Amino acid sequence: MALPPWVLPMASPLQFRLSRSLLRAGAILALVGCGAQAEARPAHLKALAEYYDRFLPSRLATCGSCHQVKPGVARPQSLEEAPHNAFGRALVESAQRLRGDGKRADLPSRLREIAGGDADGDGVANELELLAGTLPGERASTPPAALRPRLQKTRAELVAFLAAYRWRPFEQVQRPKPPVPKDPLWRSNPIDAIVASRREGAGLKARPEAPKQVLVRRLYLDLVGLSPEPGEVQAFLADTRPDAYRRLVDRLLEDPRYGERWGRHWMDVWRYSDWAGWGAQVRDSQPHIWRWRDWIVDSLNADKGYDRMVQEMLAGDELAPEDPSALAATGYLVRNYKLLSREKWMQDTVDHTGQAFLGLTVGCARCHDHMYDPITQKEYYQLRAVFEPHQVRTDWVPGEVDTRKAGLPRAFDANPDVPTYLFTRGDERTPQKDVVLPPAVPEALGGRMEVRKVELPRLARVPERQPHVIDALRADVARRLKAAEQEASGAGSADGIPALRLEAVRAEQQALEAVLKVEAVDESEGKSGSGWTEAARAAVAAQRVAALASARLEVALQESALASGRAPAEKKKTGEALAAARTVLVKAEGDSRRPLDNNFKPRIQSNYPAQSTGRRLAFAQWLTSRQNPLAARVAVNQIWMRHFGQSLVPTVADFGHAGLPPTHPELLDWLAAEFMESGWKMKSLHRIILNSRAYRMASTPDPEALKHDPDNKWYWRMNSRRMDAEIVRDNVLHVCGRLDLTRGGPDIDQNLGLEVRRRTLYFRHAAEKEMVFTNLFDGPSVAECYARKPTVAPQQALALANSRLALEQARVLGRELHSKVGTGSKPFIDAAFQRILCRPPTAAERTECELFLKQQAERLVRPGRESEQTATDLAVVDRPSADPNLRARENLVLVLLNHNDFVTIR
Amino acid sequence: MNTRFRTPGCTGVSRRTFLADTGMGFTGLALSAMLAKEAPAAGLADVARQTSPARAKSVIWIFLCGGVSHVESFDIKPALNTYAGKSIEDTPYKEVLNPERVNSKIVGGNPSHGGRKILMPLQTGYKKYGQSGLEVGDWFTHVGACADDLAVVRSLWTIHNDHGAQLTWQTGRHPREPGHPTIGSWVSYGLGAINENLPEYVVLGEPTGDCCGGTWTFGGGYLGPEYSGVRMGTDPKNPIPFIAPERNSVAKDEQEGAFSLLGKLNRLSGIEYPDDPQLRARIKSYELAFMMQSAVPDTLRLSDESETTRKMYGMDQSHTRSFGELCLAARRLSERGVRFIQVFHGGGGGGAWDAHSSIQKNHTELAAQVDKPIAGLLRDLKQRGMLDDTLVVFGTEFGRSPGAQGDGRDHHPQGFSAWLAGAGIKGGITHGSTDELGFHAVESPHYVTDIHATTLHLMGLSSRAMEVPGRRRLDMDHGAPIKEILA
């Protein structure tokens, strides 16, 4: 077999893609023959190929289409060696005409202008010749007469292709004018207008609006990730106001659980990870990174603009150096920390920033120029230079003096002067050290990055001077003082240790105050005045007293230990410690007799750089400027996917030429323009999408449409979707009334997922620290997860049927409903359906369930059955009920938790 | 687990068909009677799709991730020793570098691979084995000893020069085209189960990493998730998480009653969604999950096997134990009627066999892990008479370049080898060939789907008879059975 058949053009969008890339490859080969000097030509050739796209036969994607290469000239270097043929001349003349008329004279305009002309006079129009694969500038090359009728048909296709909305991801977003679909109902919302026009074009009929009962569950699960409670369903069904739906959308967008639901989506895209390592050694990400997770949730709830969010994540330390919230946002960078490889750290940072925000596989250009997209290898390293100076650190947080217990991991520029080199073939062992690369953005994406250095305020340089740190130090010593006072006021001790301890802590407090005094004087008057000298001497005095008191305490402690110690090894160790303590005491006593000086011991304080390079801030501002062609497109595509279960650009992290083109380019562009113009407000975008007819369609099938569009490419119905992993777990707890809605805070041990009842996003998620339950439901990969891939597997059935989580919750809800509705089986069945599936049972379902309750209870009392299997070591709440009728009810609840309608969003 | 699921996955199913498919052919009257659990059609394959007599009942599909060197395993090239250190351009075979030939079949290739011209000598020795005299590299002496059972195909080629070709090996499609069914899914779709207590399609070992196909390498694609492979571990106590109810607090008959109700309710609510492959898959997943709770631990209780058998698979040695367990588990699954057992070795990332450097060390170590277990599997199947109706396929995504990349070899999609053994396969033969350097598949070249077509043919299936409405497949997808290696 020769070429794979799907490489040949004219069969499917993907095939076009592939053939285009081959065509590019052909173009590259052809350029070698054109000569390196002919700088203008690669651009022309590319423009020709782009304009005619799949309609240009590959043999015409060469210099020879417009030039005559003279015999004997292997590598023509100039126009003299490769003069224009008749077609090339026609293009030049066209340019002159167009310019003369004050019109644009780019190659597409010129190609359009001379399409109908006949440059070589062979009786066949230029464009037809191009379509036929013959040379429009060579008389001898002309399509056979037999082919000509077919050419007209191809030309009609070309005309339609040129008229259609073109996907140009590397050009600035322009808001397209929505078309007017035939169906008047679909005209008012531009989303609907575009979707309906495309769908009508495909000859498909839209499904009607979904019933309210379906809509309310869809909306709740989509926006807050939790299904509506029976009362909430009833309220919506009873609300007959025409704008009831719109009101519900608005209300749910203001629900703080919205930030948790959508926070998890963005945690996928931005690669949230808690720390991982070897034992206690931190190797990936950082402890306390949950502050970034909370920042995501809070920012979404506050409807902070996406542009601002991106800026804070990439450069919060430069944008708002004293704002702990903005600093927490830089968790986006901190997450890439890699103890064992700065290279991999930088690589992940650059590659994923490219994919998450630009939808570009910039990582391909690490080793060589990108083969498909306009990113050179040099530009890859210029992007790297944006991030090169940064490092991570953990700052103090209010109320805690130990950053290992609580802290704020954040990014900062540690090495402003560290150079970035291009690594030959991406290998860090072969840097090209002759050129230091400055930070810059890929030229093809337009715009420029203006780097300005950022002066950092003192408290950012010396975070220990922040008032809350001083407060924490004072509180810490005060707490210990109180404990020592209590101990000393108790029964007297023979060794006098409580008294000594009290004295030591008191002296420590005084020393701390004395040092803080020096700092205060330093800040108000500087070091030159007499006030400072006086304060410094006072600090020395206080520190000597403290040292003496601490040394006395230590000697007493060791003496006491020696007296009580028994084992010889222990005695030896204590003896050594005692000797050391005595030496310290002698020195402290000696010090206290020396005349006072001003060499006090200052607090240990950081001295971080006073400037940040401003590179990341400049990059972030470029990224989120109106001119950036990709940022908004990539973001709206992600948002759309999470509402519809299907994205407009199928390759969500690759908008380049190796990705797949969007199904509705004009829709993506319209949404992107709208998004930017609304101030990058996600809630306003949600509103437009959720209020569209497209979103509100039923998901039920239509046999005719299924036949023509089984993948629902043209949105003739809503897609049914399975709940995301976290949502499955959250809802098992939620419908059973046991979900703990506490928001935020430190990550929870992932192994407690079946017992602790918090929302899933709060559990630890890192390499080798993943919750088994959510993994089975295709939870996010730690490495990257730009889109989930839901599967159906028997393991999921086992998790929902056998796990402690499901069994326990089913028992709890079974008993609760039982005590509410009494003994009648119909009210129990109805209540269970409402609670778990948000709908009443059908008559057939009710009949089945009634039969089941009866038979199951009989089965459970049957003598000699395997009652020994009922484990008795379970907590009472986990244990199945002893009453067979009640136990059957618990079983029914479990069945409904395993129902397809439970995990499915219709 | 029986024929009621055998409707096309995603399309063109009317409500009526669905009802019939889900065991609810007669609505209204006697509905509740029809909702009673159906008698399982155990042991019955859907013969409707079988177009030829089946030679194989099940397939053990061994896949080595990363690209195994063909020139040092099953397609020995002494010319590499003769011309070691020379550029291909300075040998009589410089024509192999013709860019048209090198690139013509590669789609969307990664330009950093290929172009290795300086020939590297063979990094291991080789011998002739058996009556057939098949030449096999010394990395595979145990498999070599089974030479008379093998049909080696030496003329494979593939379309991608990077590890996305792992997906291509399973689906026949380029890595940019995910969502196509794997060969295992087609087998499962075409035949269904023999044993309703186990999945039709099981995945053992660490599969391909996310970079290179990830879950698509055992996914049902557009046939729907019910035809995806089911992953299993080999620890009988915990082969699958949640294999038993928490602290056994649910009795067997209690659970049976609950699952039975669940099946009925799911089918009832499915009336509105007759086309929903997710629903169908979920119904099936629950029926299967119920049975798997006892069947899977039983199947994976490798300790039931005799010491002699365990040794055959190398389970007594630390370096072969892990893969030996997988191979033995594969036999036990095959024995119990699992249709397709996909055994991965060296999965995750680009794949362990990806020896861009130190190929000698890499292949020596990795081959030592798999050689004895694979040979043990072949011998064990044979001694039990199972090799007559079990097909074993040994494959990898591509070969490795004749030219050196330092002390390693680069990716090589233009020519590479795989072998088949067992049901309906002629033993002790080679088919097709590459050129003297092992560069291009020259004689009887085969795209990877020809291996798929051969597999389907041996199972009595034809992919052309399994067309799914709305999913036109290309000739390339179908491939053609390699008649020359059929017994």
Helical segment tally of chain A? 36
Fraction of residues in helix of chain B: 25-40%
The CATH class name of the largest domain in chain B reads Alpha Beta
Let me know the number of strands of chain B: 15
Secondary-structure element series of chain B = HHEHHEEHEHHEEHHHHEHEEEEEEEEHH
The number of domains of chain B: 2
List the defining traits of the structure above.
heterodimer; A: 906 residues; 36 helices; 10 strands; B: 487 residues; alpha/beta; Alkaline Phosphatase, subunit A; nine-stranded mixed β-sheet; 15% strand
Describe the protein's topology:
The complex is a heterodimer of chains A (906) and B (487).
Chain A: H1 13-34, H2 40-52, H3 86-100, H4 107-113, H5 126-132, H6 148-163, H7 190-201, H8 212-223, H9 230-238, H10 244-253, H11 257-269, E1 276-278, E2 281-284, H12 290-301, H13 306-319, H14 324-329, H15 331-334, H16 342-358, H17 377-387, E3 390-395, E4 408-413, E5 422-423, E6 431-432, E7 454-455, H18 458-461, H19 467-489, H20 497-525, H21 530-564, H22 568-593, E8 611-612, H23 615-623, H24 631-644, H25 665-677, H26 682-690, H27 693-696, H28 703-708, E9 721-722, H29 725-735, H30 772-776, H31 794-802, H32 804-821, H33 825-837, H34 843-861, H35 884-897, H36 900-903, E10 904-905
Antiparallel strand pairs in A: 1-2, 3-4, 5-6, 7-8, 9-10
Chain B: H1 15-21, H2 31-34, E1 58-64, H3 79-82, H4 99-103, E2 126-129, E3 134-137, H5 141-144, E4 150-157, H6 165-171, H7 183-191, E5 201-204, E6 230-232, H8 252-269, H9 277-299, H10 307-312, H11 318-335, E7 340-345, H12 359-383, E8 390-396, E9 399-405, E10 408-412, E11 416-422, E12 429-431, E13 433-434, E14 441-443, E15 446-447, H13 449-458, H14 475-478
Parallel strand pairs in B: 1-7, 1-8, 4-12, 4-15, 5-6, 5-7
Antiparallel strand pairs in B: 2-3, 4-11, 8-11, 9-10, 13-14
Helix pairs in contact in B: 8-9, 11-12
